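Next up, sample data.

:::
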Amino acid sequence: MLAHDLRQPLHAFLFANEAIVRSVSAPNSVVSLLTMQRGAAHRMTRMVAELLDFTRSRPETGMPIERRLMDLEPLARSVIEEMRVGHPSRSFRLNVQGPCIGCWDRDRLAQVCSNLIGNAVEHSSSPSSPIEVGVAKRAEHVELSVSNEGTPIPSSLRPELFEPFRRGPDAPKASGGLGLGLYIVQQIVRAHGGTVSAESDVRATVFRVSLPIAPSSVPASA
């Protein structure tokens, strides 16, 4: 209830901010302040959304999902395009192998893609290093992979990667997250009967999501 209540004034605030920017010929200094204000509100919105998802998740089953037949390739491509808008200086590459169609929740998988790609951007070694995204057909599963070059994740931290409220030691304080992004990814993937894992060495850090193509592939315990 609190998360829902917080969303309404934030949305009103953002709407008013956008209206002012569009309607007023303000000096650059004022526009700069409005842009800073809007960025802070978006970070708050993301935190509220993460908290709301945290309350929705269930340890045994993950997030509630609504399955529909869909293709993962155009979804991944769309999320990458959104990321390009927010990070125009970054290089994003998409590699697709085979038809990647399954019965999944489109909105939730968009969230998985966005969280993993955003995490890769945040922890990359430099703005010039590319973010590699892969979508591939693997027998009865489809695999989504996201990799970036950067400081390897210490082995001591890897068992905690998908626990709630965990943030990497090199995560920028201004990122606007609560350390729930990877936890939410895990809960969504688990709800689909899939798995998510991470590999990290001096060459790259890679997150891999494996999704059963058909609902009948989902174990009863998932």
About this structure: Residues 217-222 have pLDDT under 50 and may be disordered. The beta strands are 68-71, 92-97, 101-104, 131-138, 141-148, 195-200, 205-212. The CA atoms of residues 197 and 208 lie 5 Å apart. The helical segments are 2-23, 28-56, 72-86, 106-122, 181-191.
